[in-house]
Design a protein that fits this description.
253 residues; alpha/beta; TIM Barrel; eight-stranded parallel β-sheet; two-stranded antiparallel ribbon; 8 helices
């Protein structure tokens, strides 16, 4: 391992009067912000505020693109036509780019959200559609995804930079995928355990799966979700634990 890792979080997921998480506090610990783009969460004012807060905190802004599924928070698979999905991804990147530019920054990478993130692990057509949209928008934008996923493979073939990601607060299956949120224990909330997992990921490129087996998760970026209970505390603890272990925490973008 390189001794360096990015720490990212999914942010900007409030909508109207409904507030989710404490983005400003999480931004004090992370180095990259996966900002919702209005399809699975976030409204224009939330996007504007979140990008402004990220820039003020010196945090890199990334577009977290998802299915058009506000009611389901983007966590329901949608069998979209690849052409429509590519257009939806392009639309979302452009929307966030407008607010990023107003805040004095730019969209620096793209990461799928929720059900789309899980789908593009193996769904070839949807993975290719996401990559096509990113490449058409800006071929210099990195794509963040699960190690070994179809998404990262298509990104590499298309000449984009694939960035492998690991999750400190999510449980893993023996084959290196995320345990579905519908299953018990899918979200890891114990602070000490989350920190141990993050440090192991950063120093050894491994994580212990739900069956006790060890999974290789060599990654350039580690995620702590902004909507996980105690997210602020977890982000602070993970940042502190990584730095105590001698890991330089900085954005990959």
């Amino acid at each position: 391992m390189t001794g360096r890792v990015d720490l990212n979080s999914d942010l900007g997921e409030s909508y109207g009067a409904w507030v989710l998480g404490d983005d400003a506090a999480v931004l004090a610990s992370v180095t990259s912000a996966n900002v919702a783009c209005g399809f699975h969460a976030g409204d224009p004012s939330v996007l504007r505020l979140t990008t402004m807060q990220a820039v003020a905190a010196g945090v890199v802004v990334g577009a977290q693109v998802g299915y058009p599924d506000l009611a389901g928070f983007g966590r329901r698979f949608i069998d979209m036509d690849p052409r429509e999905l590519a257009d939806a991804v392009l639309y979302q990147i452009g929307a966030l780019e407008a607010f990023a530019r107003v805040a004095g920054a730019r969209v620096a990478y793209v990461k799928p959200h929720g059900a789309l993130y899980n789908a593009v692990v193996a769904h070839e057509a949807q993975a290719e559609a996401v990559v096509r949209a990113v490449r058409e928008y800006d071929p210099d934008l990195p794509v963040l995804g699960l190690p070994g996923s179809a998404l990262l493979r298509h990104a590499e073939v298309a000449g984009l930079r694939p960035v492998a990601e690991a999750f400190a607060d999510r449980a893993y299956t023996p084959d290196g995928r995320l345990v579905p949120r519908s299953e018990s224990g899918a979200v890891v909330q114990d602070e000490d355990e989350v920190v141990r997992r993050a440090v192991m990921m950063a120093t050894e490129g491994r994580v212990v799966a739900v069956d006790g087996s060890v999974v290789v998760v060599a990654a350039e970026s580690i995620c702590v979700h902004g909507d996980t209970p105690g997210a602020v505390r977890l982000a602070e603890a993970v940042r502190r634990g990584l730095e105590t272990a001698g890991i330089v925490v900085e954005s990959f973008a």
